[in-house]
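Response to reviewer comment R2.3. The reviewers asked that we include at least one raw input/output pair. We reproduce the pair for Anti-sigma factor antagonist here without editing.
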Amino acid sequence: MQIIADGPTLVLSGDLDVRSTGEIRNAVYDHLRRNDAGAVVLDVYDVETIDLTALRVLAMASRVALNDGQRIVLRGAGPAVLRMLHLSHLIRFFEVERAAVPA
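Raw output as returned:
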């Protein structure tokens, strides 16, 4: 698992699971504290797998962000991430950017 900050965007990659939840939580909350754009974008394009524990950490961060007048946007969610979001019903906590449709 790797997290890279790029302006208002956090780029997450690899396997997001119970072993990485502490690091994910710290990175997202730190980014929310430093963000003044109103939205933190989590780029999950390179996330290979995500488990329920990691999704719950992100969902809670999204609720905290909304309470502070911010929002969390998921960008680049692939089939594995979208499937877990739908199965867990946690998709309701996020704004999910639609993938661009090829011309």
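The chain has one domain: 2-96. The mean pLDDT is 91. Further pairs are available on request from the corresponding author.
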